[in-house]
Design brief:
alpha/beta
């Protein structure tokens, strides 16, 4: 259209029309909202760390895995040994999670694990689980207590139930959240090692944002 408009530039009597057409040929320009001038660093609130909040809420500054089961009370020595060995593995898995040891934590899952998390489709397979779990563990500081409440061991299968309370905050800064929930993990002994084959996680109360 600019070329078309230029053809009229030689005609003095139609200069006013050319001007109108030139305006019509320009693209629309949307006025952007003004960008506020950055506030001074001293004016911005400094978000509290997950450690500080956890100390206020739970009296801890580091994650704690609590053995709420204790030594096996089974009268059969073989069963007692199996329960004690399984409990040690279950605790080690959770300690790896709170230590931020991503690969160590994932090593306790079977390749075909099914993970059921609140408000999302089932996660099928260790690879899919790792895709979500790795960035979560790498980008967030998680401070809380997890209490292993019950275990059942029956041959090459076992179940573990636990409850947890956590403060979760981005490592780069930002609002923290308070989580309270419980989970049930089903395990199988695969090639002589205990692996999680399914897990079910739910919140006892909805997560709440903390200031």
């Amino acid at each position: 259209m600019k070329a078309r408009c230029a053809r009229f530039s030689g005609f003095v009597l139609t200069l006013w029309l050319v001007a109108v057409l030139l305006v019509a040929c320009q693209p629309a320009i949307f006025q952007a909202a003004p960008v506020p001038f950055p506030a001074a660093a001293g004016d911005l609130p400094v978000p509290r760390s997950a450690d500080d909040i956890a100390e206020q809420l739970m009296g801890i500054r580091a994650p704690v895995v609590i053995d709420g089961v204790g030594p096996s009370k089974a009268t059969d020595p073989a069963q007692a040994q199996a329960e004690n060995e399984f409990l040690a593995v279950a605790i080690a898995k959770d300690e790896a999670f709170y230590a931020g040891n991503v690969e160590g934590h994932l090593s306790y899952y079977a390749d075909n694990v099914i993970s059921v998390q609140p408000g999302m489709p089932d996660i099928v397979g260790k690879v899919a689980l790792a895709e979500g779990l790795k960035p979560y563990m790498e980008n967030y500081r998680i401070v809380g207590t997890e209490t292993i409440k019950r275990i059942w061991v029956y041959g090459d299968r076992a179940t573990r139930q636990a409850e947890w309370e956590e403060v979760v905050a981005p490592k780069t800064g930002g609002p923290a959240e308070h989580h309270i929930g419980r989970c049930t993990l089903n395990w199988e002994k695969i090639d002589g090692e205990w692996k999680v084959v399914s897990e079910f996680v739910n919140y006892l109360v909805p997560p709440t944002e903390l200031e």
